[in-house]
């Protein structure tokens, strides 16, 4: 009987006709490091370096700067997704000519977010439609772009969330979560109905607990569609509302936008274009 010669081939991998070269090993290393963009563009980078006769330092600078830029873009997108913002509003898109009394330079100085790093607070007051929310959302977006921990919410949604915690026993956890952001934006104080029950703390209690824990430690920015003197009536406790405002006043910048409603302006223009009567003016408080 003829005998088989040579080693057994059980489990042996087929030998590639083409040996692995330096580019293949570099690509494999990039994949292990998670540098997928450079891995996918490696041949283009090498071709560019060869064609332009660039030094190795210039090649590395381009590769790492593009990887860093992509990493930053992903981080900013993640911050935006976690912030609670729904749209990307910018200061550049704000109609400054419509609110000539607003100090544009002062707003852009705030956009540097130095007040956030100092743990100072910010309060915008004014009638509905004057641009408070637009500016606050634009500042929150700047925070995301600077990779700060930002949360945006309306006052009613914030209070509803804390009230829900009172019902299911998660209040301490929810309060801690709202205390965490480096920049917390509470929009539209005075808009929407605040829940009030005899057997539960008032809205003023829950908001005071939050502001008190963040005070001098982390920055809180708010907008109010009602007079600050009306916060007690809105929140259900004049004494606690005064205590909230007292803490905010210590390190807060207040900006009052004394101007017309942009939404009313747009409605008037649309009505005029259609030949219809304009809607009544918004008479909400400042």
Structure in words:
- The protein is built from twelve helices and five strands.
- With 286 residues, the chain is α/β, with parallel strands linked by helices.
- Mean pLDDT is 85; it is low at 282-286.
- It has helices spanning 22-33, 36-52, 56-83, 104-110, 114-117, 132-145, 155-168, 171-179, 203-214, 231-235, 238-251, 262-274; strands at residues 121-126, 150-154, 183-189, 219-224, 252-257.
- Helix 1 (22-33) packs across helix 2, helix 2 (36-52) packs antiparallel against helix 3 and helix 9 (203-214) runs parallel beside helix 11.
- The termini are far apart.
- Strand 3, helix 9 and strand 4 (219-224) form a beta-alpha-beta unit.
- The longest helix has 28 residues, at 56-83.
- Strands 2-3-4-1-5 form a five-stranded parallel sheet.
- Helices cover 52% and strands 10% of the residues.
- It has two domains: 22-82, no CATH class; 84-274, P-loop containing nucleotide triphosphate hydrolases (Rossmann fold, 3-Layer(aba) Sandwich).
């Amino acid at each position: 009987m003829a005998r088989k010669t040579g080693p057994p081939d059980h489990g042996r991998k087929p030998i590639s006709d083409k040996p692995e070269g330096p580019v293949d090993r570099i690509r494999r290393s990039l994949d292990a490091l998670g540098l997928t963009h450079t891995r996918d563009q490696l041949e283009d980078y090498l071709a560019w370096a060869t064609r332009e006769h660039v030094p190795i330092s210039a090649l590395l600078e381009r590769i790492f700067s593009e990887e860093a830029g992509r990493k930053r873009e992903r981080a900013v997108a993640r911050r935006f997704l976690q912030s609670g913002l729904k749209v990307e509003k910018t200061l550049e898109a704000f109609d400054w000519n419509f609110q000539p009394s607003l100090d544009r330079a002062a707003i852009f100085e705030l956009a540097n977010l130095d007040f956030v790093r100092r743990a100072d607070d910010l309060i915008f007051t004014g009638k509905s439609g004057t641009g408070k929310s637009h500016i606050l959302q634009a500042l929150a977006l700047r925070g995301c772009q600077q990779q700060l921990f930002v949360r945006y919410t309306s006052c009613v949604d914030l209070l509803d969330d804390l009230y829900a915690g009172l019902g299911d026993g998660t209040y301490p956890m929810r309060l801690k979560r709202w205390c965490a952001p480096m920049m917390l934006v509470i929009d539209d104080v005075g808009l929407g109905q605040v829940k009030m029950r005899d057997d539960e703390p008032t809205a003023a209690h829950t908001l005071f607990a939050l502001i008190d824990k963040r005070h001098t430690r982390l920055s809180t920015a708010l907008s109010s569609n009602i007079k600050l003197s009306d916060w007690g009536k809105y929140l259900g406790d004049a004494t606690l509302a005064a205590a909230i405002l007292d803490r905010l006043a210590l390190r807060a910048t207040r900006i009052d936008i004394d101007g017309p409603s942009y939404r009313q302006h747009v409605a008037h223009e649309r009505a005029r274009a259609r030949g219809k009567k304009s809607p009544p003016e918004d008479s909400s408080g400042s």
